[in-house]
């Protein structure tokens, strides 16, 4: 039997922001026992994934080793860490472990997919550990922008790994545990093989600001606001939601929660005992019965999501509530790169309604949940690992994080999705390259990233679509003219005649001079008709369109 | 004959950033003589305008009054001010006026569309004026991020209007005229009816930085850079391009220009005498013959445009040049909201190549060309107008600009695209609402914003497409089964059978029980087949797809 090895394999999150999924293994080569850390999702966009509902990590590699998986550990309840549990559980079939709040959210997701709540086990924090095959895994409380975030201590005979999960260093986070320097330092006392560390904010040079600095600013803001106020933030940021609600309460405003995730998150935090001082809330129906200046709406949709409460209020109405001149809308959030267009659209819609919009451009009403560079330095110094492996970040973040580690004399390992790293020796090395990718949840179907489905949709969006129908008789002679239908194309082009007429004429002309063997050969005929259709649209409208050719033969 | 009135009508740029197009009129109501200020474009995106090449203002209102137009005045040579001249000239048919550099660029565009260069007249700066019908128009030099930008003084019997165009207040802009406070103050001495003023940076509270502060920072940066350096900025920012090239020259680096617009802009600036101290450049072929540390590439594509030089270098190669580990790429630019994804993609591609990327996140290597709030205040105080009409900005910018004017005791007028403002009386008022919009240049065809062409493309991108073909015989009986082809849809769904098979079976089942009068009625039959196809895809894959039905009847 071959020697055991300790390995690390990111399947998502390393080379991107979102869709976190990391694998650790220990055992004989290619027969390691495995654990999975996080099963997150990422979100589609019109540029690259039109029509897609959700993006999941491709877990084909894991599925093929289903029997080797001893557990799935979820660090915290953000969608990009827990969002795929319901979608992928069946294919992995291992028990899920998380702390209480995260487990509460995970169970809701499991239930939506018809799985038992028992598939999720609630774990107490460090020093308790879970034994999973050759691993002992402990959940070490760490501060982030959602309650009960945890770094993981992953012990095996191969040595200790510390996996930070997403974090910031906040000694006064409002809700949830403060960052405990001594606790984190204590993890390092017998040496740490590798620190696998959050990297998203590596380019932010300032020290991180505490969540506790936001509440007072919001309170000041509410002190001067007139009319109705709506505030949006990530619903999962319970500390923020609580700060806003308490500030509202002190300003004599009743809080109304709008948006499904806002209600669900507060419910989960209350159920798990994290939130016992949340002001009582009013229903959307009650809002009309209270003077506007006594209302604060706490709403979802800080990223401009089209169907969320913010967007619907900006469209004019949500749950019977309409904002108007003299009201104020507060973004207690930052816009994630790529979401600017949606957020700006909302801002302008409110502007048209006469609603004042206040955002975080002055740096008062939001703080990041991720460690900036000085905090990353602190973490590295506390853990003092043999190697630092940056995770959760785009390539540029991981690369920069490696650079700063190496500048500090710590070995850095740049491992992106699919790079299996062997941590057994003194120097981590790439053991193998695994094929990874994304799985698209498209409607109710899971579609592979490279199946061509989305590529075809993008092509139709860029080029429009032509359907060519042709009927041939028993002698392979065309029965009448070919028939064309277009979608997503201008009605006429250069010839100033209807585009379909020009197409049909050109195709008919071709058929008139086509050889018998072409007419008898479906593949050949289809290819020719497509080529002509594309040539004609290019000449008429300057576009090579997508073409579907349907040839019917009477027999 | 009715009394003459002075009117202002934005057709583009008021309520958006980009696509500037403003109309001024003087004369009897509805028979005013008109002038047009700027004919700009804006750029498509995948979210709302997939496949579109360029977006132009809808000038239907102007075209219907072609004989009333006395001139088209272009303030400066940015695409969002001059980009539509070639596309729309024929429909407006009025002489185009601009200063030398802008005229040079405008003539190139006219030539591309086969128009005479004589259609563009070069105008000397203020105090010279052009007489256009009842108007006298003067080009007043103003600082911006492109040479020879001008504000316009528009005099008529209705009073003086000052139209700033895009501007910043820069007393040391490097290339082109410095902002001249005395000159601008002098325009106001007999009173100004309305100041029509740039608004894009109204939310930037800091004083604007001079272009002249950028060069020294770039020089410092080049002093420490190793390997090959590539720098990108807007090619039209001649001062910046010159600063970079001169810094390179001093650092012992030869400059190579990459990208069509980079070469064209430098050519235009040289032809018009604005640039007589640009270092000599080397060709892309020469780059290979020079040590990497002696090369600086000046490249297009600062906004991540897929086909530009930056994106192609990030993809691996452009004009035979490949960047590699140890090289540096500098964004001497800011990312326009909405372009983040493209820019970030390039950054990560370079990271993968080992190329260091430096951007303006530290605030060193770029300054905005637009007036921040303090500069807007200065302009308003210099001109001291009866009314301030904010232009060039989204609704939120215009609204904020009105607010600060009114807080300063100046009447503010919020006029978005399509709002015709009568400036004749003491209080500007809305005279009429004009239908406005956008015209899409799609391939070689101009498509109206509401023609449904783009809507259909977006639907196909979101929902995929099914073609249903059915042949009926002389007795209206189906000849064989209906035939389905899908594009942009998963191959199978819930039934675990091919989607097309399920579709065909469901459609065939319907035909089996369809009444004769349905089978005889194309419209009815098509509607039913579409409904069934959509119902089936919804059940199978969770999506209601777009459907094209082709019914052929043998007769």
Automatic annotation (TrEMBL), chains A, B:
Enzyme class, spelled out: hydrolase
PROSITE patterns from the UniProt entry: UPF0036
One example GO MF annotation: exonuclease activity
Presence of keyword Chloroplast: no
InterPro entries with a match to the protein in the record: Metallo-B-lactamas, RibonucZ/Hydroxyglut_hydro, RMMBL, RNase_J_2, RNase_J_b_CASP, RNase_J_C, RNase_J_CS
Residue ranges annotated for the Metallo-beta-lactamase domain, each copy included: 18-218
Any one Pfam family match given in the protein's UniProt record, by short name: Lactamase_B
Keywords recorded for this protein, A-Z: Exonuclease, Hydrolase, Metal-binding, Nuclease, RNA-binding, Zinc
Key word Nucleus present: no
Alphabetical list of CDD domains matching this protein: RNaseJ_MBL-fold
Organism domain of life: Bacteria
UniProt-listed Enzyme Commission number(s): 3.1.-.-
Protein name: Ribonuclease J 1
Organism: Pseudooctadecabacter jejudonensis
Taxonomy of the source species: Bacteria, Pseudomonadati, Pseudomonadota, Alphaproteobacteria, Rhodobacterales
């Amino acid at each position: 039997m071959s020697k055991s090895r300790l390995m690390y394999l990111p399947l998502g999150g390393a080379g991107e922001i979102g869709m976190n999924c990391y694998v650790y293994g220990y055992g004989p080569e290619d027969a390691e026992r495995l654990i999975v850390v996080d099963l997150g999702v990422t979100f589609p966009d019109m540029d690259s994934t039109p029509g897609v509902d959700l993006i999941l990590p491709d877990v084909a590699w894991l599925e093929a080793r289903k029997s080797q998986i001893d557990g799935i550990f979820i660090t915290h309840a953000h969608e990009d860490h827990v969002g795929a549990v319901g979608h992928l559980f069946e294919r992995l079939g291992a028990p899920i472990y998380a702390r209480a709040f995260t487990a509460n959210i995970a169970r809701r997701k499991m239930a939506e997919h018809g799985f038992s709540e028992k598939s999720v086990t609630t774990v107490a924090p460090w020093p308790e550990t879970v034994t999973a095959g050759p691993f002992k895994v402990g959940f070490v409380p760490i501060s982030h922008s959602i309650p009960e975030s945890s770094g993981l201590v992953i012990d095996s005979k191969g040595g200790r790994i510390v996996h930070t999960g997403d974090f910031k260093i906040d000694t006064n986070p409002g809700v949830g545990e403060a960052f405990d320097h001594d606790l984190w330092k204590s993890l390092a006392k017998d040496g740490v093989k590798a620190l696998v560390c959050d990297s998203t904010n590596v380019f932010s040079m300032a020290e991180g600001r505490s969540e506790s600095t936001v509440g007072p600013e919001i309170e000041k803001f509410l002190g001067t606001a007139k009319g109705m106020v709506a505030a949006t933030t990530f619903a999962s940021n319970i500390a923020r939601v609580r700060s806003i609600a308490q500030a509202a309460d002190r300003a004599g405003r009743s809080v109304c929660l709008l948006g499904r995730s806002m209600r669900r998150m507060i419910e989960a935090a209350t159920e798990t005992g994290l939130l016992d001082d949340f002001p009582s809330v009013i229903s959307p129906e009650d809002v009309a019965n209270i003077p506007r200046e006594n209302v604060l709406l706490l709403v979802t949709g800080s990223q401009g999501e089209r169907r969320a409460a913010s967007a619907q209020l900006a469209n004019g109405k949500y749950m019977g509530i309409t904002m108007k001149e003299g009201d104020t809308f507060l973004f207690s959030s930052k816009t994630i790169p790529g979401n600017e267009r949606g957020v700006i659209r909302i801002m302008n819609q409110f502007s048209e309604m006469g609603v004042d919009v206040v955002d975080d451009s002055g740096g008062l009403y939001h703080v990041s949940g991720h460690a900036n560079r000085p905090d990353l330095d602190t973490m590295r110094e506390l853990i003092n690992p043999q190697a630092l492996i940056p995770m959760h970040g785009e390539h540029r973040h991981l690369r920069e994080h490696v650079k700063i580690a190496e500048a500090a004399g710590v070995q850095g390992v740049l491992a992106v999705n699919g790079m299996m790293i062997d941590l057994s020796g003194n120097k981590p090395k790439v053991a193998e390259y695994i094929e990874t990718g994304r799985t698209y949840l498209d409607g109710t179907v899971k579609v592979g990233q490279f199946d061509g489905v989305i590529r075809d949709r993008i092509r139709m969006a860029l080029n429009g679509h032509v359907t060519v129908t042709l009927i041939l008789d028993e002698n392979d002679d065309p029965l009448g003219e070919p028939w064309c239908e277009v979608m997503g194309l201008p009605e006429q082009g250069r010839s100033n005649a209807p585009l379909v007429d020009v197409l049909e004429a050109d195709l008919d002309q071709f058929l008139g001079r086509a050889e018998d063997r072409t007419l008898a050969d479906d593949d050949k005929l289809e290819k020719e008709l497509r080529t002509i259709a594309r040539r004609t649209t290019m000449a008429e409208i300057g576009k090579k369109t997508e073409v579907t050719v349907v040839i019917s033969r009477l027999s």
